Amino acid sequence: MLFPKKTKHRKWQTARKNPKRLAKAVETRGTRVAFGSFGMKALSQARVTSNQIEAARKAIKRYVGKEGKVYIRIFPDRPVTRKAAEVGMGKGKGDPQFFCADVLPGRILFEVAGVSEEVAREALRKGGTKMPLKVKVSARI
Prior knowledge:
Elements: H1 19-24, E1 38-42, E2 46-49, H2 50-64, E3 69-72, E4 78-82, E5 95-103, E6 108-113, H3 117-128, E7 135-139
Antiparallel strand pairs: 1-6, 1-7, 2-5, 3-6, 4-5
């Protein structure tokens, strides 16, 4: 499971969730396949947890086998806090529970190298089913 070794701030403030603003937001960094020959590209916006990243990585790696190489292009650095069950309002913010990565449309999530096109596409499709957002497989340009 991925999480940062050290964080500057233990708890982050909640980001704005205006649907009109999120509909226009697109990723500007990490939008091209750089390391592998095929990549999984996000088509919608979501917060991807470290558990979801690990589940997708396992599914992809299991399908490509030993000869294929998998690159993870996102990292969960955002702490998510939750208050304990049946605790009243107030009394401060909850404790950090897990880490997630904010993903905008256009971001490459995973890349695969060293396997044929049909194997790479099927592996990334299987990994995409573990993600909480819509994805498509894109080839290197």
